[in-house]
Request: fold
Amino acid sequence: MSRLVSRPAGNRRFPLRGTLLGLELFIGGWAVYGAVMLATDAWHLPVADLAPLPLHSWVLPGVGLLLVVAVPMLVAAALQWRHARRAAGASLAAGVLLVSWIAVQVAVIGPQMWLQPLMLVAGLATAALAWWGRPE
Reply:
């Protein structure tokens, strides 16, 4: 008589965890880069793009990018790396924050570059993978 042996849920989710970890490191790393570039005005973006906001430089958007996108993504990546119980929740929150950041950005300053839809998809993918991989 043969017996079916099921694999533990942790093994099934390993590729998912690795994918999330890679995605979060990628997004978090580029968000740090973008934040530094904005805060130091290295891209020389037109300040006129900020007209809907009471801002006269890109420093605060750079700080916002760091705090709202980079830090949550990198914290979620660290939790994924450590196999923490809260990793899925942190990843879900980081994905939702990125999607929200892009939605507000497009609503306030409009579509500006190809990076916005790419990061929207990356945020949705992060949130979806985190939802799918959450503990049962």
